[in-house]
Specification:
7 strands
């Protein structure tokens, strides 16, 4: 099992893994009409603008897991506003006139493209970095998630980060338990049960 830096050649694999773990860790292929949409939001910008903190696992059958990190969330968000979201906004209409409860999964992500969440300065003062991690089933339960985390934490710590945060859905209890075990703690919880978790580095 090889852990290595992600490269532009890994983009298709990252998008595929992102989609195949998009349903609270399960395969979300059936949920999205556009198979690239999830990757446009949660994988593509990280590989494009923060490749120094992007790492993949390759088991010989291909890339089956990744961790994507950002050192400075505020600066990253500002760059996406300038260089990533505009092209996607031209491609995906804003579903602002569709009531939130009636939006399809594609429309929910399109809304996020047009209205990305603004970083909380109080949060970023202590946890300026953030990450996304996904592993396909063949990579799970073998210590590879911890291996990816340790590698990213070392990378972020070496770049001067004091802390990192991540979000996890309310239904993804398996991932929540894993993050608790790694030392993350709850920072906030949405009405739907999604957690924002943080870890001091």
């Amino acid at each position: 099992m090889t852990l290595r830096p992600a490269t532009p050649a890994d983009r298709a694999a990252l998008y595929r893994i992102c989609l195949e773990t998009a349903d609270s860790g399960e395969d979300g292929t059936h949920l999205y009409r556009d198979p690239l949409l999830v990757g446009h939001v949660y994988a593509g910008p990280y590989l494009t603008f923060a490749p120094e903190h992007a790492f993949v696992l390759d088991d010989g059958e291909g890339v089956g897991g990744y961790v994507l990190g950002v050192l400075d969330t505020a600066a990253f968000s500002a760059r996406l506003e300038r260089e990533w979201w505009p092209a996607l906004r031209a491609q995906y209409p804003d579903p602002v006139n569709v009531p939130p409860g009636e939006r399809t999964p594609d429309e929910r992500l399109a809304h996020l493209i047009h209205h990305p969440a603004a970083p909380d300065p109080a949060l970023l003062a202590e946890y300026p970095s953030h990450l996304h991690i996904d592993l396909l089933p063949r990579m799970q339960g073998r210590g590879q998630g911890r291996r990816l985390f340790d590698h990213l934490f070392s990378s972020l710590r070496g770049a001067g980060s004091p802390g990192v945060h991540l979000g996890v859905g309310g239904r993804n209890t398996r991932a929540q338990a894993f993050y608790w075990h790694l030392g993350f703690h709850e920072l906030s919880r949405s009405p739907g049960g999604a957690l924002l978790m943080g870890l001091r580095l």
